[in-house]
Amino acid sequence: MQNTLILYPIFPMLALTVYVLFRTFFMRLAAVKSGEISYKYYRLYNEGEEPAACLKNSRHLNNLLEIPPLFYISCILIYITGINSLTLVICAWLFVLTRFIHSYVHLGANNVRNRYRSYAASICVLIVIWVVTLISILTL
Fold first, then answer.
1. I need a surface site. Which of 3, 23, 33, 84 has the fewest CB within 10 A?
2. Which among 43, 72, 73, 42 is positioned nearest to 58, based on CA atoms?
3. CA 83 to each of CA 6, 125, 136: distance values in angstroms, whole numbers, following the listed order
4. What is the spatial distance between Cα 64 and Cα 30, in angstroms, rounded to a whole number?
């Protein structure tokens, strides 16, 4: 199996994060321009309340900067050690898929039950990636 295949899922995950980053920036900018919130709020995040839509988007951006770095690290570790397998590549793509679903739900209707399910699924897939990676490294 081509060792670089494990790196491909990193790019859509990164693209999702960049999309939410820009979305957050433009939502905040629009909120300040419309007068929904003062720019002073963003000094220490304690002068007023961020509009709900901005807060939801900001929280989602934070979420994309919490768990996915463990995914990035695992993919790079798999690549560097050369332990790539079809199982790991499929799991990597499943992780990306579940994170896209999570983003769609969270940034859309925000159904908490569906959001939790997609989040939990992504965590389970990530655990599988790390367990398979550990076993593969130990058996080198």
1. 33
2. 42
3. 10, 17, 6
4. 22
Q: Which tens digits make up the pLDDT trace of 16-47?
A: 999 999 999 999 999 999 999 998 898 888 88
Q: Give dist(CA 83, CA 63) in Å, integer.
A: 28
Q: What SS3 class is residue 122?
A: helix
Per-residue pLDDT of 85-135, as tens digits, reads 999 999 999 999 999 999 999 999 999 999 999 999 999 999 999 999 999
Identify the CA nearest to 105 among candidates 121, 92, 86.
121
Q: Which residue is it, tokens 């709020």? A: 41
Range of the domain at 87: 3-138
Indicate whether 72 pLDDT > 90.
Answer: yes
Exposed (0-12), middle (13-18) or buried (19+): which is 101, by Cβ within 10 Å? middle
CATH number at residue 32: 1.20.120.550
Q: Which two tokens stand for residue 22?
A: 């820009």
Q: Taking the mean position of all CA atoms in its chain, how far away is CA 103?
A: 8
Q: According to the model, what pLDDT value does residue 1 have? A: 79
In the numeric block, which tokens belong to residue 70? 């463990």
